[in-house]
From TrEMBL:
Membrane topology (UniProt): Multi-pass membrane protein
SUPFAM superfamilies, alphabetized: Carbon-nitrogen hydrolase
Protein name: Acyltransferase
CC per GO annotation: plasma membrane
Organism classification: Bacteria, Bacillati, Actinomycetota, Actinomycetes, Micrococcales
Gene3D superfamilies associated with the record: Carbon-nitrogen hydrolase
Glycosyltransferase as UniProt keyword: no
MF-aspect GO terms: N-acyltransferase activity
Presence of keyword Nucleotide-binding: no
UniProt-annotated location(s): Cell membrane
CN hydrolase domain location: 139-389
Length: 429
């Protein structure tokens, strides 16, 4: 998507609606209209084309702001709408000041903006354990070289994560860990079908005495799948999640024959990634608790899709793990932006969250969005944390897609009402 598409669509929608009599006469009504239209456009570009691109939603800018507790009320929809409304209120105040309005009329929208901005900080953000705690070790193994070619060195990357896990054991102590998490593409050669890798991972799993979650690629029927496995010694995977939203033009090429006419570079994606269909939950056997713990997961780019994470938590996820591979993005801010999304999801669902990357940034996040530990880019590093397991669903979980649906319906009603009004005026003329 072109970065100007969203603002452009919002501008077009605003121009269409703002001249309607009921909008033009009342600037505070305009505030509500701005919030609704902005959020509706965000949701549209998060769905189309090819599944959309919700990366960069306005809500994700608020992880360090007083608005962040609102995430647990209505997810990105509510936080984006309130953020847009605050901006619109400030614009109304500035406009009134420029026009020489009385002080009271200037103060009203500014006061309303302050209330909207600060009141959410009073909302509770629970962090206590409800179903025990889990000592989780996260391993960032790093890659041999930076850039797109890094993932081709699959055995070296897997070896780095084995080495990193041994370093983790020295830090935490043998027997101290309940679960070890590796990132997406930690072993791009599938250890379920490769005896050498299976033995290496079995060996380190025995040393840790804990299950390992790891990312791999599965090839079948001329396509590939991005899997995240639960690995215990000798099992070759007791459970697996398959990525549901592959990245268009990055992991697969839609309408390849059509786009090849525009550029032969589409064939740099040599094997298309196919989508999984199952909800992102993994049942992980935890010896210390005497039961399986249900882990909610989404792979890399999927953290931007609120519906996927919500479905995983509603399906029983007690902890969120976001495995990711950021090697192709070099020293950009991509992984930091992803961290903001992971923090948002932690608050939205009141779940401790681990973002674990091949190259960073990896982080351990409390259910209130606080970063407990994080790594730097392109380093080998490990983190250990005792994390609370939680089962209570937030209001955002219970409401599901309703806030988004209400925004969409209201935006469509505004546009339809405005269009109908203009047609009536033309008919009278």
């Amino acid at each position: 998507q072109d970065p100007g598409t969203g603002p452009g669509l919002f501008g077009a929608a605003w121009v269409a609606v703002r001249r309607a009599r009921f909008v033009a006469r009342h600037d505070l009504v305009q505030v509500a209209v701005v919030a609704i239209l902005w959020t509706a456009v965000e949701q549209l570009r998060g769905r189309v084309p090819f599944g959309g691109f919700p990366w960069g939603l306005l809500a994700f800018s608020q992880t360090d702001a007083p608005l962040i507790p609102l995430a647990s009320v209505g997810g990105t929809t509510v936080v984006s709408a309130v953020t847009a409304a605050i901006g619109a209120l400030l614009a109304v105040g500035a406009t009134r000041w420029n026009r020489g309005a009385p002080a009271g009329r200037i103060a009203t929208p500014l006061a309303a903006a302050s209330v909207l901005a600060l009141t959410p900080a009073l909302l509770p953000t629970p962090t206590t354990a409800e179903a025990g705690t889990l000592v989780v070790g996260a391993v960032q193994g790093n890659v041999p070289t930076r850039g797109a070619d890094a993932t081709s060195q699959a055995r070296a990357v897997a070896a780095n994560h084995v080495t990193g896990t041994r370093a983790l054991l020295r830090e935490a102590g043998v027997g101290a860990l309940d679960l070890v998490v590796w990132p997406e593409s930690a072993s791009d050669i599938d250890p379920r079908t490769d005896d050498e890798l299976a033995e290496a991972i079995d060996s380190i799993a025995r040393e840790t005495g804990a299950p390992i979650l790891l990312g791999t690629q599965r090839y079948a029927d001329r396509v590939r799948y991005n899997d995240y496995l639960v690995w215990t010694p000798g099992s070759r995977g007791t459970d697996a999640y398959t990525k549901q939203r592959p990245v268009p033009f990055g992991e697969y090429v839609p309408y390849r024959d059509v786009f090849r006419r525009l550029s032969p570079d589409v064939d740099r994606v040599t094997t298309d990634m196919a989508a999984g269909a199952a909800t992102g939950v993994l049942d992980v056997p935890i010896a210390a608790l005497g039961r399986p713990v249900r882990v909610a997961t989404a792979i890399c780019f999927e953290v931007a899709y609120g519906d996927l994470i919500r479905e995983s938590v509603v399906a029983g996820g007690e902890l969120i793990v976001i495995p990711t591979n950021n090697a192709s993005f070099g020293l950009t801010q991509e992984s930091t932006q992803q961290l903001a999304m992971s923090r948002f999801r932690a608050v939205e669902h009141a779940r401790a969250t681990v973002q674990v990357s091949t190259v960073g940034v990896s982080a351990v996040i409390a259910p209130d969005g606080a970063v407990l530990d994080r790594t730097a880019l392109f380093t080998s590093d490990q983190m250990v944390a005792d994390l609370p397991l939680r089962t209570t669903l937030t209001l955002a979980d219970r409401l599901g897609a309703w806030p988004a649906g209400i925004i969409d319906a209201t935006a469509l009603t505004l546009l339809a009402t405005t269009a109908f009004g203009r047609l009536r005026l033309r008919g009278r003329a």
